[in-house]
TrEMBL record:
Pfam families (alphabetical): AdoMet_dc
An example Gene Ontology molecular-function term: adenosylmethionine decarboxylase activity
Taxonomic superkingdom: Bacteria
Family under the similarity heading: Belongs to the prokaryotic AdoMetDC family. Type 2 subfamily.
Protein name, as recorded: S-adenosylmethionine decarboxylase proenzyme
Chemical reaction(s) catalysed: S-adenosyl-L-methionine + H(+) = S-adenosyl 3-(methylsulfanyl)propylamine + CO2
Site note Cleavage (non-hydrolytic), residues: K112, S113
Pyruvic acid (Ser): modified positions: S113
Gene name for this UniProt entry: speD
Species the sequence originates in: Methylomagnum ishizawai
Leading EC class: lyase
Record InterPro entries: AdoMetDC_fam_prok (IPR003826), S-AdoMet_deCO2ase_bac (IPR009165), S-AdoMet_deCO2ase_core (IPR016067)
Keywords from the named record: Autocatalytic cleavage, Decarboxylase, Lyase, Polyamine biosynthesis, Pyruvate, S-adenosyl-L-methionine, Schiff base, Spermidine biosynthesis, Zymogen
Length: 266
């Protein structure tokens, strides 16, 4: 499909920002299990691994890395900031609305764009619920688009819940001097999510088209208790215990997804 190219006067000054909150939830009953879960997350998503994920994102969106800073924290968590600039964008650029690749197919000196990630492992003060949150921001200027990295990022983390915001800021001018406040068509972040990903998640949109603000929330459709038990054998639990744990987990997920607390029923 032939794409009409916008003839610009100078550099494309539009800023495209994509922000993620990615959540993983699990059940770790004892204090020791909760500590081991935090240690597992810290090892699984340490600064070195996060740097590799962001390096892959950089390659997907077609940017050039300028500098990287990364840090592992005590007692837990990590951060990576990667400052990038627009790399070579081929003239035969593919449709921006086509979903980007899946995984199998961190301060740096900012020139025009940046990618950051921060992790927040934590344990519930009671009840055995532990959560892991990763906050990711991909902000680009020019023709490169952070939306191409959507599917890769969703599948690079154990994503039970994904909350995303995409916004286009500023304006750029064409050769006639007319301002353009967006340089691509978009009705929803879901336009850029692959069918494989979309089939796994329930999704809700809240979009403000006139302000070029797009918000999508995703939560896994299928719930299998085995996937949420950390250092706990499901067969060692009674039916009543399994039911109670499942209710706890699903309540935690619903509260995060809808952004509100629910009262416990007596």
């Amino acid at each position: 499909m032939e794409i009409d190219k916008l003839q610009l006067h100078g550099f494309n000054n539009l800023t495209k920002s994509l922000s993620f909150n990615i959540y993983d939830i699990c059940y770790a009953k004892t204090e020791q299990q909760q500590r081991r879960y935090i240690e597992y997350i810290d090892e699984m998503y340490n600064a070195k691994r996060l740097t590799q994920i962001l390096t892959d994102v950089n390659a997907i969106i077609g940017a050039e890395i300028l500098n990287i800073a990364r840090q592992d924290y005590e007692p837990q968590g990590a951060s990576v900031t990667m400052l990038i600039s627009e790399g070579h964008v081929p003239d035969t650029i593919t449709n921006l609305e086509a979903p980007g690749p899946m995984p199998d197919s961190v301060v740096a000196h900012l020139n025009k764009s940046h990618i950051t990630v921060h992790t927040y492992p934590e344990s519930h003060p009671y009840g055995g619920i532990s959560t892991f949150r990763a906050d990711i921001d991909v902000s680009t200027c020019g023709r490169i688009s952070p939306l191409k990295a959507l599917n890769y990022l969703i599948h690079s983390f154990e994503s039970d819940i994904v909350i995303m915001d995409y916004r286009v800021r500023g304006f750029t001018r064409d050769i006639s001097g007319q301002k353009h406040y967006i340089d691509h068509e978009i009705t929803s972040i879901q336009n850029y999510i692959s069918d494989v990903t979309a089939e796994r998640y329930q999704m809700i949109d809240v979009n403000v088209y006139q302000e070029k603000i797009f918000h999508t929330k995703m939560i896994l459709k299928d719930f299998h208790l085995d996937n949420y038990l950390f250092d706990t054998d499901k067969d060692a639990l009674t039916l009543e215990e399994r039911t109670a744990i499942q209710k706890q987990l699903q309540r935690e997920m619903a509260e995060i997804f809808y952004g509100r607390n629910y009262k416990l029923r007596r």
